[in-house]
Write a structure and sequence with these properties.
Helix content: 40-55%
Distance between the termini: 31 Å
Mean pLDDT: 93
Oligomer: single chain
Strand content: 15-25%
Number of strands: 13
Length: about 350
Amino acid sequence: MNSTSIRRPPISAIIPSWNARRYLPACLAALRAQLGDDDEIVLVDNGSRDGVAAWARVHMPDIRLLELSCNLGFAGGTNAGIQAAQGTLLLLCNDDALVEPGCVAALWATMQAHPEAGAVAGVLTFSRHPLIVASAGIQMQCDGVALDRCLGMPTDALPSLPIEIFGASGGLALLRRELIKDTGPFAAHFFNYLEDVDLAWRARLRGWRCWLAPTARARHVYSASAGQGSAFKQRLLGRNRLRVIVRCLPTALLRACLPAILRYDLLVLVYATLRRQPAIVAGRLEALSELPDLLHQRRAIQSRRTAATGDLARWLHPAPSSLAAWQTQQRLADLLAYHL
């Protein structure tokens, strides 16, 4: 790692990886170029079958390697990395993301300028078209849908200065260790998908704030680990959506949003039936079967809430019409078909 002197706390870059050896050389090299002698990279081999661990021992002997016996998903793998990490700041980055020059510095500069921030989000762009935004953090809607902010926008439409947002995507974020100590780590039982939304909610409930660093960017291979329309992803998205809603929405907000939430899920279930996509239904049924446990988790999470309901409500955007939601999905499909 380079020897440039940088006045900031040590960073632990945590990279959970599952069968992604083809992406790691570029991912790790880009990170190494932006980290200092007091920093570290923690590579978590999530039970890969493509020789990630053996490759890392030979080609990246200076990084910290954790070898898990099985795949714990992004949530469990990242938690293992956080537990092993020694840095004061935690840099989360996908194994299929390539940080652009200045990314780490921009994340830290934003966090330094906003000491109240527990997290700073970076901007993910499409790997084959870095001038198109894939995600600029998390945006929440009143129907419980979590979106990638600015998806499909040109990067020159992003704000020039950091702005406050609801939460950071786990694909590129700088976290204070104090945030994790306060809120707890990612919900390991989520495995993949929306675990970052759940953490963002729990952070907001505790009064933590999040900022977007618009010049901190990484090129991302969108949905590389599981196809955008895979049954596996559909099941986990449906399951974890309901988990987030039950666990995290304060009672007043849940009551206000419930009609929009039910309307959305009813339309999704009709769509799933017409398109013969049972995984969408199966995920929701799985979450409903967990309801007693989820309510127990909800009581524990909500009992620690310090944020006012009004402060949380301002982050909920109006739910779009069914046509607008469908058009958004079509734009995403077109972007993936063109840019991947």
